[in-house]
Amino acid sequence: MLSVFKAEEWDNYGLITVDSSLIYSIVDVLLGGRRGTAAMRIEGRPYTTIERSLVERMVHVMLGDLSAAFEPLSPVTFRFDRLETNPRFATISRPSNAAIVARLRIDMEDRGGRLELLLPYATLEPVRELLLQMFMGEKFGRDTIWETHLAEELWVTDVDLEAVIDTQIMKLRDVFDLKVGSQIMLSATQDSPVQLVCGDVPMYTGRMGRKGSRIAVKIGDRIDKTPRG
Fold first, then answer.
1. Which of 186, 187, 204, 188 is CA-nearest to residue 196?
2. Of 24, 25, 17, nearest in space to 62 by CA
3. CA–CA distance, 10 with 73 (Å, rounded to integer)
4. Topology (CATH level 3) of domain 151-222
5. For the sheet containing 111-120, what is the strand order?
6. Residue 213: CA atoms inside 13 Å, Cβ hemisphere, count?
7. Contact 123/12 with Cβ under 8 angstroms?
């Protein structure tokens, strides 16, 4: 059976081919066939209304999953158009036109069959640039799902701020000579600004003080890290 479907947003068609083995297997499984028995194949007769109806339902499920698979790349709705048994009536493109064919084998215990998904290049043309990406998000710069997740987690992340009163440059031998009780003279005074850093990134400047029994820093200004040209 040949199922013609339309990609609504791309305004073109595709084709799903279901071979007779899979058709009889689907009918056998859905209508209560015994396990471990191969599906009966009766070639040379037209398909019944029941068989056509069951295959059409299966194609609807496949098209829904196919739309979901394309969703991260480009929203598209694959709509079932018609079911044909004569290839002449299922023509969606010229024989000389390029197309992509995906051949799938479906096994249900010892039953199953093959189906083929055909998408002409003309159908995929609207998303050609997206399909040429080396990875998801290369063209449009980001994955919105991960961006949202990362932003939510960042708001609840604990960040350590260090208050730097003064910095000293010392020789390594002087550092090794330090002992318990050694003193390092700082150049800072009580009015010297204190720098608040996060890792190696300076964030704020402020004044050292006291609040109750705790030493505190009152933030006075934010350090602008924008390079000036």
1. 204
2. 17
3. 13
4. Surface presentation of antigens (SPOA) (2.30.330)
5. 78-84, 2-7, 12-18, 111-120, 99-108
6. 0
7. yes
H/E segment holding residue 92: none
* Mean pLDDT over each residue of the chain, to the nearest integer: 83
Amino acid at 125: E
Other beta carbons within 10 Å of 25: 24
CB 93 within 8 A of CB 119: no
Q: In terms of pTM, does the model score above 0.90? A: no
Supply the DSSP string of 10-58, one letter for each residue: TTEEEEEEE-HHHHHHHHHHHTTPPTT-PPP--TTSPPPHHHHHHHHHH
117-139 pLDDT, tens digit per residue, is 998 888 888 888 777 766 655 44
DSSP labels for 141-205? S--HHHHHHHHHHHHT-----EEE-------HHHHHT--TT--------TTS-EEEEETTEEEEE
CATH code of the region 2-143: 3.40.1550.10
- The structural domains of the chain, with segments of one domain joined by +, span 2-143, 151-222
